[in-house]
Amino acid sequence: MTEKALRLGTRRSKLAMAQSGQVADAVSQVTGRPVELVEITTYGDVSREHLAQIGGTGVFVAALREALARGEVDFAVHSLKDLPTTQPDELVVAAIPVREDPRDVIIARDALKLTDLPRGARIGTGSPRRMAQLNAYARTHGMDIETVPIRGNVDTRIGYVTKGDLDAVVLAAAGLNRVGRSDEVTDFLSVDTVLPAPGQGALAVETTADNADLIAALAQLDDPPTRAAVTAERSLLAALEAGCSAPVGALADLLTDGQSVKEMRLRGVVGTTDGSTLVQLSTTGPVPETHKAATALGRELATEMLAQGAAGLMGERAL
Q1: What is the spatial distance between Cα 100 and Cα 319, in angstroms, rounded to a whole number?
Q2: If 207 and its partner were Cys, which of 75, 138, 272, 312 is the partner (CB 3.0–4.6 Å)?
Q3: Does 7 score more than 50 pLDDT?
């Protein structure tokens, strides 16, 4: 008799289905059990408002978590950058698999790169973080661009360029890789130009805290270096008291001497969306061996950023 299928809760978008399908295959391999995808519509999927208006944090996550709590699914897959930084006690992120490319990319008309865009070029993005950094880059490099707020799935966003409504759109490399459309990228944005969202490119595999057997099975998909990096990034975000729609970028990467990993560098940025003011700092330390150490790294950098005036740049009241 074959074992009962595990039910994986996922958003319905093409990207969510693609990344959940990849996790489902991996879970099947480690458990020997079939995995079926259970499609769940979230508030973030049906609302047409901009993310900053609907609160950003958790709008793609709440419905999946409710399905977990009700026992309608056994586990769920989230884009880690969509997860609120506070973790409910009854749920556990059992696995953070190896991270995809964390960079942002541009898809522009006529295969243009960012530096080739004409004066007055209109660049679409729904992210205040991307707007802040692109506008800051343009200011310091004598470029004249206009960032235009957009929403929608990958097809919709790329369509703005192909239809001629916009000169370019900014998307995450990870998402395009997962849906097999990375060949449409016209420019990869260096993390020195645009720092990604905290956790960008990583997935979170979440289940209920009382499901010990499933937690143990899912843990086989966990990648400790990815977990350490995204924990530091999300700790920075939490310490800045900013949601996932705030203009905060963060990236932790491992520094090697060619042979072995020596240190972890964490970079953070927060800025006004017009790019007129950015607070951008970094810190380097030993590779965190524990959740506590990774959290401390993020908190430490956030403290320095707040001392440089970061709180006043997020459109939130500084306490």
Answers
A1: 36
A2: 75
A3: yes
| Residues in the chain, overall count | 319
- Residue 46 in this model has a pLDDT that exceeds 80: no
DSSP string, 200-241: TT-EEEEEETT-HHHHHHHGGG--HHHHHHHHHHHHHHHHTT
Distance CA 120, CA 127 (A): 19
Tokens of residue 131, six digits:
């707007």
The residue-averaged pLDDT of 244-273 equals: 86
70 is catalytic: no
The answer for 164, left when phi > 0, alpha when psi is -120 to 50, beta otherwise, is left
Question: Is 144 a residue whose pLDDT tops 90?
Answer: yes
H/E segment holding residue 132 = helix 128-140
Among this protein's residues, is 12 annotated catalytic?
Answer: no
Of 11, 65, 74, 82, which residue is the catalytic one? Answer: 82
What integer best gives the mean pLDDT of the chain? Answer: 89
